[in-house]
Amino acid sequence: MTDAATLASLAAYSDAVDTAVQAAAAYYDDGSTPLGDDEYDALVRAIEAYELAHPTEVLTHSPTGKVAGGAADGDVPHSVPMLSLDNVFSAEEFTAWAAGLERRLGRPVDGWCVEPKLDGLAVAARYRAGRLVQVLTRGDGLAGEDITHSADAVLGLPATLTEPVDLELRGEVLLTHEQFELANETRTAHGAAPFAHPRSGAAGTLRAKDRPYRVELTLFAYDAVGLDGLCHSELLARIAELGAHTAAGTAAEPRRCATVEEVQQRIDEIAALRPVLPFGIDGVVVKADSAADQQQAGAGSRAPRWAVARKLPAQHKVTRLLEVEWNVGRTGIIAPRAVLEPVVIDGVTVTYATLHNPADITRRGLMTGDQVFVYRAGDVIPRVEAPLVEQRTGAEQPIAFPEVCPRCGGDIDTSEQRWRCVQGRGCQAVASIRYAAARDQLDIAGLGGTRAVQLVDSGLVADLADLFTLTRDQLLTLERMGETSADNLLAALETARHQPLHRVFCALGVRGTGRTMSRRIAAHFGSMAAIRAADQDTLAGVPGIGTEKARVIVAELTELAPLLDKLIAQNVGIAESEPTAVAASADDDTSPTGPLSGQAVVVTGSMTGALAELSRNEMNELIERAGGKASSSVSKRTTLLVAGEKAGSKRTKAEELGIRIITPDEFATMVAEQLDA
Fold first, then answer.
1. Which active-site residues does the annotation give?
2. Is the pTM of this model over 0.85?
3. pLDDT at 83 over 50
4. How would you classify the pairing of strands 381-387 and 334-345?
5. Lowest-confidence region among 50-64, 125-139, 194-208, 543-557
6. Which domains does the chain have, with CATH numbers?
């Protein structure tokens, strides 16, 4: 487990933030993640502790205080914010949380409602006159993705309610254990790979379109917008009366408890039921039952103050470690993976599990042939915990560590805990190119995974720069590449060549940077050549980097120097015309320029007018082009809030703090020059 003491430097904190953001992005995209739930929770707590101790070093893309860790988004605004839940991890933490709520209220809580924390995807289903009109994912809590096309496959989500009311149901869509098994039988019968686990199956199914087969899911509703004034237990009963499915009738059905002691007892009962429940859970949700208590307690930017998730420990099973595979990641990291004798954990057959690094294998004393504890951290990612040494027979063998890179046969850098091929990204050209071509980087249409493999395997492409030397004749040599496809890909590459500098830099995947930091670096230096020549002191002057992180980035730039030179020679990346306000060096005495110079800006709600078509990422880019600093949460440091339609809790908090609030149209006028650029 990561703890606060681990994050002893800005570089460690920055790496932790990047790791957490990547894990959250994978989790909220398709249910997969490189971190288990327990590890992610511990990592975020360590990040929170560091930020509390170093408030001036908080990174804007930090997952703290954000719904879904800031990883999810959407383009359809929610009627009211759709928040996450805060977590507690023990009976003692829950008791302390409950006492804190009662202190906030100034009186005892008027009853509690206890219900299972279901492991699926949160959705909002809108009804008009009792008829279902739209279904959205939670997204970032303010806006979600429209998944109405999947509604007819969700059991418990009626097309028509029993009464002609206007409301919005909120609940969790998941695959029950039975649905999960049936879904995999159906998928394999159609030549598709089976789902790895129920959550990824639910995520993939809800987003999928035009499949030649149908996968059924189940909704468990837990809230509704438009049924005001009811206590939570009454609200759940009312939802059931209207024809929607809830957890009522299951062994873990919601139950009203009068005291904290009764709540703890019910939590223990639900935890004990996990092996026999027809669906997966990863905790128990406790809510203040009274509508008056909920209204008085209110909500923060990420979660309501009157509800909490009591997370349950991951389930463990024992199986045999058959062998260890060594896989190479996008940046050349060599990661071990355990091959296991198949074992069923929480209804899922597990055959592979994560091992952290060679040092972790040594520390645990693992050997092939060992009986090992395996657990699904957060009921999602299987991990090997420890060997049962007392059950060894003498037939076990030491795990063989690679002496050369298992992908390219090159040397391995073993100077750090995470071993890495000395060729770095060059060893995994396909993964690097897929990352660079993705929407948030160069957005190269037609360059998906299969095409990237073709280009690398054919020898036409070894790195990102090689993409921009491709010719029509070369592309036409590829299998299933017709003239139209070749012309379209060349056109997309030409568009990518002229992407702004910050997108090209982001496409390099430099450790310690992301989209926001890439914008700052690009604005600070103005050209790829200037970035290429930057030293540690110069990089440390970019806001949010500092000395430790600058060291990491300089090392990355040194490794990438040949690739940078090729990109520069090919004129890839449009240089910013002038370094902007956010780029001012630590040694630069000039004042920042731009209409938003010195401003910390938060955008909330649905944008209109000239801003209507801009994504949140594009809004952040606009803010920084105008000299401001974009942020995702309102705080005392915020100086300006751009509040669109249905702005919600961020507007309320800004009003409480006396922060200036303007409309999208007023903001568009303020940054008109940058908007037209």
1. 117
2. no
3. yes
4. unpaired
5. 194-208
6. 1-71 (1.10.287), 76-311 (3.30.470.30), 314-403 (2.40.50.140), 444-497 (1.10.150.20), 501-583 (1.10.150.20), 600-676 (3.40.50.10190)
